[in-house]
Amino acid sequence: MKVNQQAVKEILKDVSPAKLVAATKYVDEKEIEELEKCGCFYFGENRVQAFMDKYEKYHGQGHWHFIGTLQKNKVKYIIDKVDLIHSVNDYGLIDELEKQASKRDIEVHILLQVNIAREESKHGFDEDDMDNVMAYLKNCSHLIVDGLMMMAPNIEVEDTRIYFQKTKQLLDRLKNAYPQYPLNELSMGMSQDYKVALEEGATIVRIGRALFQEDE
Q1: Angle at CA of residue 58, ends 54 and 61, nearest 5°
Q2: Which end of the chain, C or N, has fewer beta carbons within 10 A?
């Protein structure tokens, strides 16, 4: 896979002023540097080992986000290397993030992953549990909740709109109820549905395959 420069520039224009996080799972640090040349400065990795390899070899000015499922035993490797963790999806992970952040005396910016469609195949907190989650976080002084992250069901694109709307409504409610947290970010929308997500309030979109083309 290699960067499709024209596609990157067009998508950057489409998503502005929201952030484009390029999902870089299938490319190496050289292609990440090409993304940066096109004006993309946020890179999202799904796997800790792949992230660590690229992090060591990359020498640009971009910012790293972790967007995949994060195992508790891998937290210590990335916690001081990424700007934002999108996929905080259970209490055990919250505990480990707080523990590792406390050890280093750093603040860690996180998004809470919500399973707004209640799909068995997806991770995330249930919408009805979010007040309990926010109460739990009161004891986690090193974690800064920047907002929410979700993945829409794999259905017709227009049918995803209701799930984006529900996530935005949840974010607005939490922001009013818990003013001690920023709760400004809404990470939702991928290659197939990011335009609908943006229409419904996404501030971050996570796009992979639409930015790349197959090697010739």
Answers
A1: 130
A2: C
